[in-house]
Design a protein that fits this description.
By secondary structure, the protein is of the alpha+beta class. The chain has helices at residues 5-13, 15-22, 32-43, 48-51, 83-98, 123-141, 160-169; strands spanning 53-57, 60-66, 71-75, 105-110, 115-119. The structure holds iron/sulfur cluster. Iron/sulfur cluster (SF4) binds at residues 13-14, 16-17, 20, 148-149, 154, 157, 159-160, 163.
């Protein structure tokens, strides 16, 4: 199986979400990926296409890579900085390193917040990323869907209706 940046991002939020995503249970109308994609496409920096490249590494796509400065750019519509975004970009840096591109960095842009977050992959982070990948494989290969996390953290999740529908019927 191919672990992509989306797996890493979801894994850092909720193991159940990772499992649902892997098993192709999609909540189309609220899909965060669709929303994020259209946000990026419609509102953000059309000029970036000239400098940045979309690259595919080990089956994982990096949308905006600047090969001149070796910077992975990631745009998030979120109104708060999240550690899952950092993990996603660290995974991209890991893939670059694995494919012979050393010393790349990441830059997460939060247009809503007018903030940026620099991301690096230190030597000690490499084994961490490898441990995430192994754990994701364990989770998604299990027949058991993981338990829900704390409800207060679920409000903005696209699987909210799926996870809590039964509760509302009762
Ligand atoms: S609604 Fe909550 S428990 Fe369900 S997948 Fe999303 S974050 Fe996980």
């Amino acid at each position: 199986m191919t672990i992509t940046g989306t797996y890493i991002k979801y894994y850092k939020v909720c193991h159940r979400k990772t499992w649902l995503f892997h098993h192709k249970i999609e909540m189309e109308h609220t899909s965060e990926l669709v929303a994020e994609g259209s946000f990026i496409g419609e509102k953000s920096y059309p000029q970036r296409a000239e400098r940045y490249r979309e690259i595919l590494l080990d089956g994982s796509r990096i949308d905006f890579y600047d090969p001149y400065d070796k910077v992975v750019h990631e745009i998030k519509k979120s109104d708060k900085l999240e550690h899952s975004h950092v993990a996603q970009v660290q995974f991209y840096l890991y893939l670059l390193r694995k494919n012979g591109i050393e010393g790349a960095t990441g830059l997460i842009e939060y247009p809503k917040l007018r903030q940026t977050q620099t991301v690096r992959l230190e030597e000690e982070d490499v084994s961490l990323v490898e441990a995430w990948v192994q754990d994701i494989e364990r989770i998604v290969n299990s027949e058991q869907c993981p338990e829900r996390i704390t409800k207060s953290k679920c409000r903005s999740c696209s699987y909210f209706d799926f996870c809590y529908a039964a509760e509302e019927v009762l």
